[in-house]
Design a protein that fits this description.
Number of helices of chain B: 12
Structural class of chain A: mainly alpha
CATH class of chain B: Mainly Alpha
Shape of chain A: globular
Number of domains of chain B: 1
CATH class of the largest domain in chain A: Mainly Alpha
Order of helices and strands of chain B: HHHHHHHHHHHH
Radius of gyration of chain B: 22 Å
Number of helices of chain A: 11
Number of domains of chain A: 2
Radius of gyration of chain A: 22 Å
Shape of chain B: globular
CATH topology of chain B: MetI-like fold
CATH superfamily of chain B: MetI-like
Largest sheet of chain B: none
Oligomer: heterodimer
Structural class of chain B: mainly alpha
Largest interface: A-B, 81 and 74 residues
Helix content of chain B: over 70%
Distance between the termini of chain B: 37 Å
Chain lengths: 257, 277
Amino acid sequence: MTAIRRSAIEAAIGLVPIALLLALWFAVATSGLAPPALLPAPQTVLLRLFRLLGDPQFLAHCAVTLFRLFTGFAIAAVLGITIGIAAAGSRTVAAAVTPLVRVLAPVPKVALYPALVLTLGFEHSSKIALVVADALFPILLATYQGAAAVEPKLVWSARAAGVSQIRCLFTVVLRAALPAIMTGCRIGLVISCIVVFLAEMITSTDGLGHMLVRAARNFQTVDMFVPIIAISLLGLALNAGFNALRARLLVGYPEEA
Amino acid sequence: MVDEALAAAHPGARQRERMTLATIPGLPPVLACLALFLAWDLTARAVAIDSLPSPWSALKEVPAILGDGEAIGNIFASLRRMAIGLILAIVCAIPIGLMMGRSRAVAAFCNPLMMVIYPVPKAALMPIIMLWLGVGEAAKILVIFLGVSLPVIYHSYQGGRAVEEKMLWSAAAMGMTARARLFRIALPAALPEIMVGVRTGLVLALITMVTSEMIARQNGVGNILFNSLDMAQYQTVYGMIIVIGVLGFVLDAAFQMLRGVLVAWAEPAQPIIVGST
């Protein structure tokens, strides 16, 4: 009972800074301290967001962004999990992959974007490729570390029971590493969300990021806030959705700290 | 082979490892770079389009970029902003993170706010911040500051949470004040984890810097990239990408050496770090 009360109190405390931030925004915007051209009031932004939710043009922009986001993330997840498991299963693969990852991981992937635009064009593919490049490494590393940390006795038991090495990777290692893989995927998903938005801001003709840039060029401040809030809410929702999925998939796994 | 790899995860297995090419320090990354350039070369030959020059012609462009006074000035201006943003973020974030780690109330206060801020693309705030602060240095530094703060706070928080309670009790029993305990016990004890956060922050600072310059397009490395793209100087685009890539790798490697000096007593860190905006 006290534990529940304590967590309820903590949740309430946590809402304070968010409420304060909103109140500060409201106060600064309505007191006239900042002209509405520079800082629109929070209710104006929210109203615009709600109104746009019924606007087919806005929804089309959202759909384009979502398409790029999920395609890129799906490719990154498949590649990352496959390479990560393969590297944990074979020393040769690990010896080839580790130095490559070590060189590529700290490189700012966004710098590759001009090259991707040059080779893949201004359309979907260059943005999807950038999402893949950015989301791949957290998923790959989490998978590799998770798979390398799998209890060897589990693998030995499966091998003793006559499971082939390759099958062992899928039936034992992949499942035992699932919690780590899910963590990597969740990070990769939020990164995808951010990267697709930035790529659309840099060069694009559609998508949420393009909406922000277009509004900035026309000094429509309210329309600048709407895409940022939309993409952040999307990131929050994806994060929460993924946590729920994770909780469902990981029923029976030991609880992680 | 599965068994081998799994056995390698155990410390004893490390010592039995044979000397191979892969165990020579510094060689695998060089080989990896060579492999990347070869793959690039083959792709360039296969597709044979103007917009994908061979890696060797792009490499030839690197000395030209570094010899150009304007370009090098832009690069240094970018690096200076990055350093200021990073240092400001570290100075603010470590105390916040440590206090969160040591006090449940502070953690409960800050955590939801951090969760809300986490998925906001920081570099995307550039147009709005430029509206408020103008096009000068302040806007660019603020964006880098925002991008870097979160991972440093998060890792300081994790580090602060994992401090051995007994050390703090002993210090309290010896009459140390709460503030002294925070800075003389919790800070050093959490330092290895804080260093992980700073390393992520360093990579992120570079990413945020390049991204925000690509969005704002006034000066700096991101602007050089897109200027040469607009002028169809493809070699310069690729040469600049190589420069930024090397910069990321070198900064990360240099920080690893610094880390070795500062927290030599701690377990070695993960060899690879991932950062993204």
